[in-house]
Amino acid sequence: MINAKHQPVDAAEVPRFAGQATFMRLPAVPSAEGLDIALVGIPWDGGTTNRAGARHGPREIRSQSSLMRKVHHVSKIAPFSLANIADVGDLSVNPIDLMDALKRIEEGIASIIAVGAIPLSAGGDHLTTLPVLRAVARHRPVGLIHFDAHSDTNDSYFGGNRYTHGTPFRRAIEEGLLDPKRMVQIGIRGSIYETDEHAWAVEQGIRIIYMEEFTRRGASEVIAEAKAIVGSAPTYVTFDIDSIDPSMAPGTGTPEVGGFTTREAQQMIRLLEGVDIVGADVVEVAPPFDLAGMTAIAGATMMFELMCVIAAKFRS
Amino acid sequence: MINAKHQPVDAAEVPRFAGQATFMRLPAVPSAEGLDIALVGIPWDGGTTNRAGARHGPREIRSQSSLMRKVHHVSKIAPFSLANIADVGDLSVNPIDLMDALKRIEEGIASIIAVGAIPLSAGGDHLTTLPVLRAVARHRPVGLIHFDAHSDTNDSYFGGNRYTHGTPFRRAIEEGLLDPKRMVQIGIRGSIYETDEHAWAVEQGIRIIYMEEFTRRGASEVIAEAKAIVGSAPTYVTFDIDSIDPSMAPGTGTPEVGGFTTREAQQMIRLLEGVDIVGADVVEVAPPFDLAGMTAIAGATMMFELMCVIAAKFRS
Amino acid sequence: MINAKHQPVDAAEVPRFAGQATFMRLPAVPSAEGLDIALVGIPWDGGTTNRAGARHGPREIRSQSSLMRKVHHVSKIAPFSLANIADVGDLSVNPIDLMDALKRIEEGIASIIAVGAIPLSAGGDHLTTLPVLRAVARHRPVGLIHFDAHSDTNDSYFGGNRYTHGTPFRRAIEEGLLDPKRMVQIGIRGSIYETDEHAWAVEQGIRIIYMEEFTRRGASEVIAEAKAIVGSAPTYVTFDIDSIDPSMAPGTGTPEVGGFTTREAQQMIRLLEGVDIVGADVVEVAPPFDLAGMTAIAGATMMFELMCVIAAKFRS
Amino acid sequence: MINAKHQPVDAAEVPRFAGQATFMRLPAVPSAEGLDIALVGIPWDGGTTNRAGARHGPREIRSQSSLMRKVHHVSKIAPFSLANIADVGDLSVNPIDLMDALKRIEEGIASIIAVGAIPLSAGGDHLTTLPVLRAVARHRPVGLIHFDAHSDTNDSYFGGNRYTHGTPFRRAIEEGLLDPKRMVQIGIRGSIYETDEHAWAVEQGIRIIYMEEFTRRGASEVIAEAKAIVGSAPTYVTFDIDSIDPSMAPGTGTPEVGGFTTREAQQMIRLLEGVDIVGADVVEVAPPFDLAGMTAIAGATMMFELMCVIAAKFRS
Amino acid sequence: MINAKHQPVDAAEVPRFAGQATFMRLPAVPSAEGLDIALVGIPWDGGTTNRAGARHGPREIRSQSSLMRKVHHVSKIAPFSLANIADVGDLSVNPIDLMDALKRIEEGIASIIAVGAIPLSAGGDHLTTLPVLRAVARHRPVGLIHFDAHSDTNDSYFGGNRYTHGTPFRRAIEEGLLDPKRMVQIGIRGSIYETDEHAWAVEQGIRIIYMEEFTRRGASEVIAEAKAIVGSAPTYVTFDIDSIDPSMAPGTGTPEVGGFTTREAQQMIRLLEGVDIVGADVVEVAPPFDLAGMTAIAGATMMFELMCVIAAKFRS
Amino acid sequence: MINAKHQPVDAAEVPRFAGQATFMRLPAVPSAEGLDIALVGIPWDGGTTNRAGARHGPREIRSQSSLMRKVHHVSKIAPFSLANIADVGDLSVNPIDLMDALKRIEEGIASIIAVGAIPLSAGGDHLTTLPVLRAVARHRPVGLIHFDAHSDTNDSYFGGNRYTHGTPFRRAIEEGLLDPKRMVQIGIRGSIYETDEHAWAVEQGIRIIYMEEFTRRGASEVIAEAKAIVGSAPTYVTFDIDSIDPSMAPGTGTPEVGGFTTREAQQMIRLLEGVDIVGADVVEVAPPFDLAGMTAIAGATMMFELMCVIAAKFRS
């Protein structure tokens, strides 16, 4: 029954600045029970090697998501009519203890999946995607569409630390959570540690589309290739906000100039319709480094775009 | 039964940055039913003659109130043990229509009072205190302890507008909501429109304690006098954040240098214990002009201080 | 006589930071008498449904317009040689009373038109364009070239308020001020309230060019179509700064990512030469949300670009 | 005739944010002719050894002075009734050429004095006070009441530069513009270059009241001594905004923690009534380092306080 | 030989903004060999339970310490003449691994102490003081003078984490590094978790001087008591920047309004002359939350004040 | 011997925020002796006609250059393997005395060239390029590739000042330092002082490629032409950060909207490989006007890009 679905507060009735902030102005619910898509925050940045702050991401993304309305103006997807969606709050985390945090995050996402909801999360740093994948890919490896300035497939930092926001996708492959042949990374750029820094990733079969290739080929062609790579099997989508140019998303830990415009990013996500998305996230929004909420607005918009393409799966 | 009372989330368990923001990290409840004290937002600044922005006050005060803990370190008041307190959300407002907004606010507060809760609100501009008083003082005039840089007893602005944030207390007296003989204004300062600008207020019987007098006499003496003025009858407490110095509370519409330190303001509020407070507010926190959340932190702290002295009424 | 025309202060003689700020460093004059183009501020944002602040727009645009020089580097238009232009100050407004403000603004613009000057105004929120059109189109409907992220043709807000910055163009059509067949909206984007939100506008005959269409077709083609739509009859040009991307114009009330670059916006305005512009504005610059004056600089630049194409009308 | 005097725009009629910004919202006049007190900007910081930016001071002080009203709430001085006061604009300066700038500033102030007005200027860095004194003290040395964190009596910088904002008062004494026996410096603090850094100043007869002495003795006692030092002869008052604590005036070139509160500064200036002030300034407001206009508000308020005590001279 | 001592760059020769930033503009040296006092950074905030950012503290404190000069203007202490002081760089840390970081910090400080230098460090969060004390107090417990808003003697967080910036002094007592009878905490304030939150600390013998007691008694009396408590035996001084009011030090993780003014803090540190300081630190400066470098300036100034009283030990 | 070359600190070992900041995290060395490329700061902005602040550029560029890694991800150039590169500190400057500063800068660069190193400097305003060219082109005129919003070939300012940041390239041509036939300016835009403002430059033979031409033709074509213009003879590359759009580089003195994206700028610099670069600079980064270090990051990245193409010269 359509009117059983949660509906956001309408800004033509209640001004955007009013009320406790939730994702997309949806109801705050205590669990994912009965939801098709669960919007969830993961306020943790313990894997950050440079500038921390993504722990504050969920709160600010919630606040700025008040700017979103009900219908996508291009695709005409009306996500809240197609799917039952709500804000299930933030996962339990631990800012002091990395291994405990990873465990808590995995359990939190597992409980969402257990009741049949698709998790769409707001990070947190990119290491949070590892425990999310442990829950999402518990039973079989998934494909990955990965928007980022960085490959995040390094091996270790600081003399042996294997769990950082620069290593999640190497760990996920090693743990069998991702099928590297069904992985594509888009927007990679910036100076690198070693000439062969991406060799391991390429050897696994990951397709890396550097920013320069994207600039030459454009969104349509790149996403067509990405969709071919992941195919029709279950796929996770991870969107690191630092894939966007720092002028449009300054509030992040490791800015790299020369990134996507938000227009390009929106265009790409819209083209993902048809992919079997089993989970998605927007990570690395770090409000302490943000300006005028700009990065949180970009993050909230990318969540809205992802929510629309996921909701399209629920079209009868 | 003590454990029937709402309890805030504990920052030693859940980090302060986690979860949807509510006042004092208390549960968000749909109505004031069963509460002793209702924390409520009034996100409206339509009475502002200079810099608007207090409409954004409740959201930011909620966010910064995550810094508060459970017990007052000086008075040892444990408000959440003494009284049942929760966040009832924001009142319905109308950013476009002043008279409609005043009506909505009055009704919102009236519904809180109707179920026996004491409203402690976060504004909004100072005109919001007028409809609040219309609800609080519906059956008899109340006394007023008023912390502010400005007397807010002007008659009209812009060629005849009688409802602005510079006029609420003149209107409230005219409407019989306040007993001017039981009114005291503390911290008044700054250049004035006319030499006799405060003459009307003084003629009504309002006691004005200018900042300079406060500086000479100190908090203890001033509050002793204020308590004598309001006596034991029902009293409302209104705290305009611009009473605090702009260096400590820059995020406000009409800053006046030379204000209270937060230390002085805390000292004064703590001394209000024993006053029969029937409602209170913190107004004029304007986040668009704030710096590093400083004003919202000050506002949240003053709400906490007020909440403690109100909760003290519930000591058995 | 050319040297009878007002000239701006020259930054090679007097540094840009010196002197009281006026639009384009032109003389401040008490009335539009004798002017061809009157630069005027409308410091009012009482129609704003979300974040107010455009009331501060004119002052900051004045300040940043110190960066402008005398000649357009592409078109070589020298506006101050072609037309007599000055800063006539700000219109009388009323921040507290919406209907009074609309009346004051209409009268202010009418007095400019009465002496034969073309008004080029700096808002203020987009509702200010309604009373401006009441003055400009007093005797016949005009065409409209409208740069914006939003159509601003909604019907009402907050349970019946018909005058907000989301409704001016519906009202203007209803009042016969605009000929909807000669209206074009460029840059519209962002999530919408309802699937058919723009149906009314389209039914009236307004041509909506969404951002996505602009991205595909480019500035030349889009403006060629716009010029064909408005034809040679009198036309008003309204430029909402939120048509520009929030990274380039963060200081606005309702940011939508994925907007025009300033380069695209400049390119479009330059192509307007030849349109019979009878008035123009730049609205929704909201300094409290701005960063480093960036939005005010963009607004001042767009005013300069508009001033140049209007001045071109005065070529003998 | 009282109504011949210039009057500021009234914020109860025209909102504070409206109109081109002038000092105290007074009329902008082309010369000091007919004025008793000329408010004037000196947008120059070419003598700055560390962080420049005071060149932008006059514009921001003008903008924030919109917050001032007509009457002093403590002294009840109504400056605009007592004296004819207006904004004469900014002096001609040269940001590139130090010696040329000093000459231009001297000439500018001399032209104000020539028509009988008292200059009250907004700097600019503290070196601007030197050419001002050359004009003010052209015919006899004057006394000086000097509020500052620094003595500004060093000899030279950078291997021989004798004109910097660290040297003006040594130069002024050497040039016979100041009578060192009638000089008092209040608020001096912060680490020093050499143990005997202030020896020269003290030898000349300057009385230095360090911040620590002020803290012990208080405003009344200190100003009583200052008034005794300058006596009844002509005296200049210079107020370096860095005398105020950086938390209240962060926008300055050489911040030193531990400064005056604005309350203390206001208290001191108010007590200057009775001194024969022949000129005054507020210097070192550097907006690029300011926060929320806080320093410019403090500067505008200090100008207002100075204006009031100067206007008191015109009481009949 | 006096001229063997390292000297800072002189701002009267080289402007403050020039050159690579080091503490106090001293030479950067590779080790503490030959130094009396080693200025060292500890860029780590892995113990932070709320807002991280203190990892960026040393770099910004270095930058703002360019404002310091050579001699203390009150005590006339010339630290660089009395003691050999230099910047030994930052300790090796690990942002990802708490236990590894504690070990690295201890070793780093131990290597400074091994060559006979007194460490004066810039944190870093307050947990860094624990490994510092492990090095400083390796052979015997030391006394502690502790300036802070918080007691930092909690037992654990997040369900069992015993090492956070809220627990260092409980751990240090348990490890025998501190003699609780020779410990004094000054400036404690803010709401608390439980009524008896400080009971453990008091039972150990720690003297807690709350802000309210400080306000009543003043700096002289409080420091006299503190000096009596620590006596003549070796003592460590730890200065948490959040002891200072957030208006003067907003850039910190857990702000509490109502703190020390910088004037009060300076006054207290100056009175520490005579204490046998064997190490000291300034912690919790978190630049991402700072405004205009204000907190880093305050931190650099407190380091300078501490350096002066430590240097006084080297008077022959 | 490859391992004799200076290597930067590795962020996978030492976090980016740790340590005293140097250019690219390279060693700070006392002279250019033995270097192939000398990274050097020129902290001076005495030629600035509008907003000063570039004096603070080198320090912030150093700080943000911590984000750079060792290898270029597109060209695979590993600069630190090809060439010996280090940070030689800042040149001696004089913020108070223009002519003295020009002399000091020339001498500083001359001493770098004397030992055979190529200077790559971080300004400073654009006038600093004049004394740099005096050293670089001491023995023969050089070619110039000049990225900028402004031509900087004006004759004089403020009634005769011939040395400002708007005049360096006219002076350099007059002094025979530049061969105007081998000069190309790219990105020029913005309103101009006079219709024929660039006539002199064009008459000398300078090729001006306005932003609009760049937009039409693209980076490859434009740089191909630029390389043809400068040919194989020695060439200097100067990169004014204001060539980049103010949304990506707001921290500069004279912002002009409609500039290069960083992606376009990077693309252009990368194509410079093969040019015989004898010196290069990045100028006009003005941190006081910057946001979130964005401009300094852009500046550091452009330095890195330039360093890579210069280092390519050292390929054996």
From TrEMBL, chains A, B, C, D, E, F:
PROSITE patterns: ARGINASE_1, ARGINASE_2. Keywords: Hydrolase, Manganese, Metal-binding. SUPFAM superfamilies: Arginase/deacetylase. Its cofactor is Mn(2+). Mn(2+) 2 binds at residue 126. InterPro entries: Agmatinase-rel, Ureohydrolase, Ureohydrolase_dom_sf, Ureohydrolase_Mn_BS. GO terms for molecular function: agmatinase activity; metal ion binding. Mn(2+) 1 binds at residues 148, 150, 152, 240, 242. Binds 2 manganese ions per subunit. Pfam families: Arginase. GO terms for biological process: putrescine biosynthetic process from arginine, via agmatine. Belongs to the arginase family. Agmatinase subfamily. This is Agmatinase. It comes from Ciceribacter selenitireducens ATCC BAA-1503.
